Structures are given as structure tokens and as C-alpha cells.
Amino acid sequence: MASNRPAPEAPFVPNRYDSDTFGYENNRAEEGPWEEWNPTADSIRPVRGRHRVAKQRGGLARSSTVLGVGVIAAVGAGGMASAQTGKPPVSISMPDLPNVGSLISDEEPQPEGSTTPLSGIGVTATADTAEGTDTAGAGESLRARIMAQAEQQQAQVETKAAAEAAAAAEKKAAEAAAKAEKEAEAKAAAAKKKAEEEAAKKAEAERLAKLAKQFTLPTSSYTISSTFGQAGAYWSSGHHTGLDFAAPTGTLLKAVHSGTITSAGWDGSYGYKTVLTLDDGTEIWYAHQSSISVSVGQEVTTGDVIGRVGATGNVTGAHLHMEVHPGGGSGIDPMAWLQSKGLTP
Coiled coil where (predicted)? Predict the structure, then answer.
């Protein structure tokens, strides 16, 4: 094991009365002259233990423990020598030593000039602190990113939901508007149709009113006893071919409209019959008359008397049997024809 180099000799021997050396203030009788003492390898045994002395060039001890023991031993030896020999104390010159803590290390000795620190405690702690700081910073950054992404996704969801709600509201509003427009159109069409119907009815009423002035019923003070198409054994065809106005014998018969008398006289089962041909070619037959007041070719107007009610021909009682033959053809319902002219039998 390497030993400490001998300390250099003191340049002078201090006076025993010198108080600057080891604090002696007075000369003591039992003290003898001091001798110079230097610690050697024999006088200083290395302290064995977990702390190893790092080997360095220049003979400097690597362990603070060894240095500390050496210093204590030197001081103690100096004191003992002073007590035993009475020699004046000798100052010991010690080289400048590095920080004791920097020499303590649990690791293996490092080569000279190595940049590896003797102790990794502070470095490890600093690295751990830096690593913890970096980890905390990274975690905070990751958390911030996650929160930002979550907020962005939430904003996108809310934006999408708002857009869908707006689209649904717009669609609903459009449907409601379309429905309202359709209903309005339907109401307008119904109102228009109703107005047109009312206008048509009004026009028809006006026309009938006008026609009513031109047409009239064939008789008055009557009762409808038989209608068109009524079945029965009284008629040779098996059904009634006209409209019967039952009235007392002698009741006046009138021209329903202006026209020309084209037939007047006896006609078998019809009894006395008169035929009035209107301007449009429609023939009006008056049958079962008791008397005829006009002749063939005579021009008549609405309301002119053409005969009287009777019971001639095939009858069961006095009445007017009236038939209507448009264009001189087959007969139609006289009731409907009179109604079409604004008359109500």
C-alpha cells in the first residue's frame, strides 16, 4: 500500500514561547526540546472497510478516511511528543486536499483522467430529478394533447349534432311549409270549386228564372196521379209513358212554350189530343181533353189556352196526360223536362 510522502522539513524551529503553534502560551518545565516527526507507512495503518482509497499519481491518499486518520495521528503524535520530550512543537505542512466528500465512492477506482465522477449519488439524483421532470413534463404534455383531442372530438360531435338538428329543423320546417302550401292549395282549389259551383248554380238559377218566364206549367189546381215509367195493367205497353195531372173536368190547358200546333183531334186511347211543336222541334202531347181550343198550323205563345181537362179515351178519371218527345222521337220523362225549364210540377 502506498504511504504518505514525508512532510517537508520546517524552515524554522518555533520558540517555545510562540503561541501560534498548537496554542502553547507558557514554557512548561516537563517539556523537552521538540523533534521533527513525519508520519510514515508504519505509523499510519490504513483503515480497512467499505471505503477504498482511490489510487492517484503523486502519492496522494484516495480515501478521506485515511487522510483524516493520518491528520489525527499526526496531531496526536505531536502532542504526545511534546508531552514526553518537552521539545517545541513542529508545524506540519499539508498539501491542499480536495473536498473530502468528492473522494468517497462505493465504485471501483477509475483510471486517471477519467471523466466519470467518483460518486454517482448527486449525478443519479440529478438525472432522476431531470428524468422525473422530463417524465412529468411529457405526461403533462400527453395529458394536454389528450384533453385537446377530447375537446376537439366533443366540439366535432356537438357541431355535427347541431348541424343535424338544424337540418332536421329545416327539413321539418320545409315539410310543414310544403304541407301548409298543399293545404292552402287544396283549400284554394276547394274554395274555387265551390265558388265555381255556386256561380254555376247561380247562372243556372238565372237561366231557369229566365226560362220560367218563357215556360209555364200546362195546368193549375192539379195533383200528380201517375209518373213516367210507372208499371201497371192500365197501359198497353205495360208502363206509363207520360205524366198525369189529375184535375176537374174543364180545367184550362195552356201552351207550355211558344210554338206551332201540328196536330189536334181524336187519337184512340188518347181521346182528344193536341200536339204543340216548339221552336227546337220538341213535341208536347196533351191527351184525354174534354175539348180542343186550337187548330193545326196555329202559332201560340207561352200561356195561351189550347184546350180543357177531360176524361176521353182510356182513362179512369178526369186528368191531363202529358208526354214530351224531343225532335219528334221517343218520349222522355216530362217531370225532368219541366224541371230543366225551371218549373216544378
Answer: 163-214
Q: Where are the alpha helices (DSSP H) in the chain?
A: 64-85, 100-103, 121-214, 334-340
Q: How many domains does the chain have?
A: 2
pTM check: above 0.85: no
What letters, b where the CB count within 10 A reaches 16 and e where it falls short, cover 226-237? bebeeeeeeeee
Residue 126: per-residue pLDDT: 58
The residue that leads in pLDDT, 125 or 345, is 345
What would the pLDDT profile of 23-51 be if each residue is shown by its tens digit? 445 555 455 555 556 666 566 665 555 54
As a whole number of angstroms, the distance between CA 190 and CA 183 comes to: 10
Domain that holds residue 302: 223-340
Q: Is 205 contained in some domain?
A: no
Residue 232 lies in a domain: yes
**222-231, pLDDT tens digit by residue?**
999 888 878 7
Residue 85: all three cell numbers together: 520530550
For residue 283, give the CATH number of its domain. Answer: 2.70.70.10
pLDDT confidence of residue 344: 87
What are the Cα distances from residue 51, in Å, to 97, 104, 112, 114?
18, 7, 19, 20
Whether 140 is covered by a domain: the verdict is no
Q: Is residue 153 part of a domain?
A: no
Residue 289 in contact with residue 272, Cβ under 8 Å? yes
Q: Where is the domain boundary, 108, 142, 174?
A: 108
Strands (E), 219-311: 223-226, 243-246, 252-254, 259-266, 272-278, 283-292, 299-300, 305-309
